[in-house]
Amino acid sequence: xxxxxxxxxxxxxxxxxxxxxxxxDILPYEKDSRMGTISNGKxxxxxxxxxxxxxxxxxxxxxxxxxxxxGEDYIFSNxxxxxxxxQYNKDYTKGKFIDKTKIKFDGEVLKKVSSCSFSVxxxxxxxxxxxxxxxxxxxx
Length: 140
Known about the structure:
The protein is α+β, with helices and mostly antiparallel strands. Helices cover about 15% and strands about 45% of the residues. It has helices at about 115-125, 125-140; strands spanning about 1-5, 5-15, 20-25, 35-45, 45-55, 60-70, 75, 85-90, 95, 110.
């Protein structure tokens, strides 16, 4: 979970011996949210590569994403927001890394929260996510 300046990112992962799957909800303050599923996740060293299927403003997309595992935390790659190492098709519904060896993990650090809090985050409305965010800030 990442929360700062009203922005919230919630990552919920389930690991199996063959792949990692889960959900990723990107909830920027006063902007359109992007909520979706993670599938086909594979660890390569400390890097998690996966497919993120989501919807934003009624348009579905399927994009590669990457995280750097650091202890129990995951660092998000902001490469998906630029085009120096990321390529989208014409209508931005599919995206992939150009060179996975050049990925910069310079994004938000998603901190591990308790299982109870995570399951609550995954199953409640945005209103409750914002309430959790306020409670989270009072604990930090």
